[in-house]
Amino acid sequence: MDDVERAFREAHGQAVATLTRLFGDISLAEDAVQDAFVTAVQRWPRDGVPDNPPGWIVTTARNRAVDVVRRGRRGRELAEQVALDRRQDSSSEDAELMRDDQLRLIFTCCHPAIRTEHQVALTLRLIAGLTPAEVASAFLVSEETMAKRLVRAKYKIKSARIPYRVPDEAELPGRLRAVLSVLYLIYNAGADDIRNRRGLCAEAIRLARVLVKLMPDEPEAPGLLALMLLNEARMPARGGGDDVVLLKYQDRSLWNRSLIAEGHQLVLACLRSRRPGPFQLQAAIQGIHCAAPHYGDTDWPTIVRFYDRLLAVMPTPVIALNRAVALAEIRGPATGLTMLDEIAGELPEYHLLHASRGSMLERLGRREEAADAYATAAELARTQPEIQFLRRRSEALEREV
Amino acid sequence: MSHYLLSVYETENQVEGAPSTPDDMQAFLRRVIALEEEMDKAGAFVFGGALHGLDAATVVRGGTGLDKVTTDGPFAEGKEHIGGFYIIDAEDLDEALEWAKKVVEAINHAIEVRPFRATGRLQDGH
Which domain of life does the protein's organism represent (chain B) (predicted)? Predict the structure, then answer.
């Protein structure tokens, strides 16, 4: 990515957001910003990147949108009003207003009335400023399919009149959780497919940083950022996308210390606000893993305590599974297995349930059953490295039987 | 303001969660009456009603210049069909969803919210 592209991508969400407020139409805003990009590609390399790229893009895109609207039948009035209201340069646009624009757009893209995969697509396209082709490759679908999906999502916003606003205080926790979940989905899509979609991790982290800045009083936002950073820090020790390297066997000298330090700082700061939420607690757990110099030094009792608190705010079988695995480190594999069997009925299709059962059975010396559990897990796993890893475990155990 | 259709879907003429005892029925009616009053006061109530079952439905087919054929029964043979609806007036989807949640609370059943593309009589020039 060159300088123009990078500067443009960073200003994209802001520009689309402000244009959407001015013109009340996301598609018009998106097209005008795209046109401004074409102009930027021509001018910036020649004249240099402007001092205030978002201001330049908003001004250029606004002029462009005014032209487009003027050509429309009933647009003249609106165009003149916008031109009149905003005669001054955009760099003097109220900073707070522009900040709210970005939040409004984020909450609109992640509105619960929009299906999750469309929320993710809209967020990547409009907020993160990926091209439709890039969004398509992030989803591993054709550009045509993605274009249709984006059109449908924008049609829903417009036709159902999904409001362009920040939710009020009563709704905010639930709505913010939806936004954070979208960012986390984007992060995990990249982390699960390091070979092809690694860039999504960086995009998710960038968007989380934007959100932390926009909502400094909401501890779940830095909680999510910390969770991503602490995962990201361990990425170099995870086998480069060809293999699975379990936490236990990771070369901890490969972990990124500065990301861990930043993650730890964020965890401590947000936990201090005493409004713990699912992302803060998950970040705290990852923080404890990252703090251990060796696997054997891991503070399992504290991790289990955090899982207890997490389970209280987010009682899902996946959290119960993770808690069982952590507890097995203290009380042994027999206890772990009993707990896993208790939740097995709720997660019959989840490969990590079977992989965890396999691990407990293996540690109990029940090799045949362990091999079966790993084989089931391999059948249910979705990524190639996981499938291979689980198959190998299963086959190795079968040979030993 | 925009119009939204809030439709209650029945499954084979049964609304899941519908009141089964006379006491339940009384409580159900009180909730619905109170909600409709609230909608009316807020200026959101446009129209509402409950429909007879599918056995009462008739389909008319044909087209411009074609003979019209009437057949007994519903248009779509399926387990689920609309049993009743409200048409409400709301500022945006969030406001419509607020009413939708209250309807769900009152009738104890899922509903579908759809925006109108156009309302009223079609005028020349549209």
Answer: Bacteria
pLDDT confidence tier of residue A93, bands split at 50, 70 and 90 = low
**Distance of alpha carbon A152 from alpha carbon A143, whole angstroms:** 14
Closest CA to A192 of A269, A123, A136, A139: A139
Instruction: Classify A317-401 by CATH class.
Output: mainly alpha
Tell me whether residues B97 and A113 touch, CB distance under 8 A.
yes
Nearest to A228 by CA among A185, A193, A169, A176: A185
B14-29 pLDDT, tens digit each: 666 778 889 999 999 9
pLDDT at A168 over 80: yes
**How many Cβ atoms sit within 10 Å of the Cβ of residue A243?**
13
H or E element at residue A235: none
Query: What gap in Å lies between CA A193 and CA A336, rounded to an integer?
Result: 29
State the best of A161, A168, A171 to mutate against chain B, taking most chain B CBs within 10 Å. Answer: A161
Contact residues on chain B for A111, CB-CB shorter than 8 A: 93
Q: Which residues pair with B88 in a beta bridge?
A: B4, B45
Chain B residues with CB under 8 Å of a chain A CB are 2, 91-94, 97, 113-115, 117
How many residues are listed for chain B in this entry? 126
- Residues in B closer than 8 angstroms to A167, CB to CB, are 94
A285 falls in which pLDDT band (50, 70, 90)?
very high
Q: What are phi and psi of B71, to 5 degrees?
A: -130, 150
Banded model confidence at residue B53, pLDDT cuts 50, 70, 90: confident
| CA gap B13, A397 in Å, rounded | 56
Distance of CA A69 to the CA centre of its chain: 35
The burial of A84, by beta-carbon neighbours within 10 Å (0-12 exposed, 13-18 middle, 19 or more buried), is given as exposed
CATH number for B2-115 (one of 3.40.50.1360, 3.30.70.1060, 3.30.1370.10, 3.90.1170.50): it is 3.30.70.1060
A113 contact B CB<8A: yes
Q: Do A161 and B117 touch (CB under 8 A)?
A: no
Residue partners of A384: CB distance under 8 A and separation at least 6 = none
Provide the residue ranges of all domains of chain B, joining segments of one domain with +.
2-115
- Long-range contacts from A88-96, C-beta under 8 angstroms, 24+ separation: A89/A55, A89/A59, A90/A18, A90/A54, A90/A55, A90/A56, A90/A58, A90/A59, A90/A62, A91/A52, A91/A55, A91/A59, A93/A18, A93/A55, A93/A58
Q: What is the mean pLDDT of residues B59-85?
A: 88
Continuous segment of H or E residues that includes residue B48: strand B45-50
| C-beta separation of A321 from A353 below 8 A | yes
Residues, chain A, total?
A: 401
ipTM of the modeled complex: 0.83
